[in-house]
Design brief:
The protein is mostly helical and 446 residues long. It has a domain at 47-64 and 82-235 and 290-315: Flavocytochrome C3, Chain A, domain 2, CATH 1.10.1130. The chain is 47% helix and 4% strand. The protein has 20 helices and six strands. Strands 1-2 form a two-stranded antiparallel ribbon. A two-stranded antiparallel sheet has the order 3-4. Helix 2 (50-56) crosses helix 3, helix 17 (329-365) packs antiparallel against helix 18 and helix 18 packs antiparallel against helix 19. It is elongated, with a radius of gyration of 28 Å. It starts with a helix and ends with a helix. The structure holds heme C (HEC) (4 copies). Residues 50, 53-54, 57, 60-61, 64, 173-175, 177-179, 184, 186, 209, 213, 216, 292, 296, 306-307, 309 line the site of one heme C (HEC).
Length: 446
């Protein structure tokens, strides 16, 4: 009896083992579990055509498309292409000798970028001219770029002219500028950003999701310059992203965008440093708020909630953009108005100081007896003053992203401009050059 029980038990164990092995083999051969919702279409890596991604994500695509036609203005920003040179004619003087003095319009919605970059009078399409526009100018303007950079490398891309690159560029911004197709996670796509972060010892693949909701904008909304003969796209961040560190970087590199006529100053043009400006200890950045929180708020479409890709002035969507954190939205909008008005007027005082410096410098530079060492010092102060002013001016929020920082930079810029004026006067020993308010004498007729 006992033997039969043993045989039965052994048989049972063997049987169970065989069944278990069978189940394991069966499970191992099942297809890998996919995401809860399978993609409707497979999207190729770095696919430039956003309409293909749009089949899977119609809400994000439809909202991105809205940026093409949303041309609404706010007091200081918004999406119409008003001319900065008409709105503030001092800038015609400040950018004299440089294409920005001929054509400088405000930015508008993302889907217009390709049309706008091709229409600007700042382009020089004569490839025979050594000053022709390089392909680098397309770097922030197209969803074709990630694939092109991957195929040819950024060095070869930047070495081409704007003209030569044009046939390769068909798409304005697209999903491929911000997302990885296979996972839809946010990624750094611009090699210049990747390199600038690495130069600071940072690895974006370790950043949190909330950090990426800001860093993804830094693919384009940053200060940059074209390095060397190959016009290699470079962010001047090796010493850090604060204004003093960037100024120091440019001092060491000796880079100049152009030479100011009649003063001989080696000038710098600031681009659109939204990222550097916002992340320099602003109240919102310190509180962990991201660019996307204000510019890409969650919106509803029936039961589904998605990030609005209709990126624009948050003053046009205050309830969605600010109402998630601020209960009294009317009060915060009033505060934005106060901040912007204060910065816009302070900015003009700074412009007057720089124009006074330019006027004094021109007179001193025309005088053959001028003390050249003092004159050079004055030029260097002019260079720094204008760059600092431009850092605030070219930043697109009229100071809102970081109001204290804006006022600090403008104060320092005004101080440097007045010092430049004094040194220029001293270089020719002419107190007459200390006169202020010269803008009103040199202003172009409106
Ligand atoms: C706390 C909310 C908030 C955050 C965070 C924020 N912005 Fe803004 N942004 C604003 C407001 C408000 C304006 C001013 C809009 C205006 O004047 O109409 C603005 C203006 C802008 C503009 C110009 C818009 C226009 O109408 O011309 C750009 C570009 C911009 N922001 C980009 C960024 C980027 C990039 C980041 C992150 C680095 C960022 N913003 C972070 C609120 C925010
Ligand atoms: C691939 C480059 C690129 C990326 C990435 C990018 N932008 Fe832009 N953005 C631009 C360009 C170029 C313009 C100006 C387009 C024009 O004027 O035609 C612009 C314009 C804007 C404007 C002005 C819109 C208006 O209606 O006046 C805002 C606001 C803005 N961007 C915010 C952001 C935010 C926030 C992010 C990150 C979530 C971001 N951008 C990411 C290139 C980019
Ligand atoms: C300028 C950068 C940018 C571009 C261009 C862009 N996105 Fe996004 N997208 C974002 C950001 C930022 C988020 C928020 C991500 C988060 O919170 O993790 C987001 C979120 C998403 C999400 C997650 C769900 C949601 O709505 O929050 C999907 C899906 C998506 N985008 C699809 C697309 C598609 C499709 C396109 C092209 C038609 C596109 N995106 C273009 C920046 C971009
Ligand atoms: C994700 C949360 C969040 C969002 C979204 C947000 N804020 Fe704030 N905001 C804060 C926090 C946190 C502070 C810090 C002070 C406080 O606790 O109120 C602040 C402070 C401010 C201040 C006072 C700063 C100062 O120094 O005067 C203003 C003005 C302001 N926000 C405007 C806005 C506007 C306008 C928007 C929408 C475009 C906005 N905020 C969106 C979180 C947010």
């Amino acid at each position: 009896m006992k033997r039969y029980t043993t045989v039965f038990l052994v048989g049972l164990v063997v049987l169970l083992a065989v069944v278990l092995a069978g189940v394991l083999v069966y499970m191992k051969n099942q297809p890998v579990q996919q995401r809860a919702v399978a993609p409707i279409v497979e999207i190729a890596p770095m696919e430039p055509d956003s309409s293909k991604w749009g089949i899977n994500f119609p809400n994000q695509w439809a909202s991105l498309l809205k940026t093409e036609t949303n041309n609404i203005d706010t007091t200081y920003g918004g999406s119409s292409q008003f001319s900065w040179l008409e709105r503030d004619p001092r800038q015609v003087i400040l950018f004299a000798g440089y294409p920005f003095s001929k054509d400088y319009n405000d930015d508008r919605g993302h889907m217009n970028m390709l049309e706008d970059v091709r229409a600007t009078k700042r382009l020089n399409l004569n490839d025979e001219d050594p000053k022709h526009t390089p392909a680098t100018c397309y770097s922030c303007k197209s969803a074709n770029n990630p694939a092109l950079w991957d195929e040819m490398g950024m060095e070869a891309y930047d070495a081409m002219s704007f003209n030569e690159m044009t046939p390769n560029i068909h798409e304005p911004i697209g999903c491929a500028n911000c997302h990885e197709a296979s996972s839809m996670r946010l990624i750094v796509t611009n090699p210049a950003l990747d390199e600038a972060l690495k130069a600071q010892g940072k690895d974006w693949t370790t950043f949190t999701r909330q950090e990426m909701r800001t860093v993804v904008c830094a693919n384009c909304h940053v200060e940059y310059y074209f390095q060397g003969a190959g016009k290699y796209l470079t962010f001047p961040w090796a010493k850090g992203t604060q204004i003093d560190q960037i100024v120091e970087y440019y001092e060491e590199s000796g880079f100049k965008d152009w030479e100011y006529p009649e003063t001989g100053t080696p000038m710098l043009k600031a681009q659109h440093p939204e990222f550097e400006f916002f992340t320099a200890g602003s109240t919102h950045y310190n509180a962990g708020v991201s660019c996307a929180d204000c510019h890409m708020p969650y919106v509803r479409d029936g039961a589904s909630k998605y990030s609005s890709h209709d990126v624009k002035s948050p003053l046009l969507t205050v309830e969605q953009s600010c109402g998630t954190c601020h209960t009294d939205t009317e009060a915060v909008v009033r505060r934005v108005n106060t901040i912007q008005e204060q910065i816009a007027t302070t900015k003009q005082d700074t412009e007057d100081a720089i124009i006074d410096a330019i006027t004094a410098l021109k007179a001193a530079a025309a005088n053959p007896d001028a003390d050249q060492a003092l004159l050079d010092q004055a030029r260097n102060l002019h260079r720094k003053a204008q760059y600092m002013w431009d850092f605030v001016s070219a930043e697109n929020s009229t100071g809102f992203h970081n109001p204290e920082y804006a006022l600090k930079i403008l104060a320092e810029s005004t101080n440097l401009a007045r010092q430049a004026q004094m040194l220029a006067a001293q270089s020719v020993n002419d107190p007459g050059l200390l006169a202020t308010g010269t803008y009103y004498k040199t202003a172009p007729a409106q």
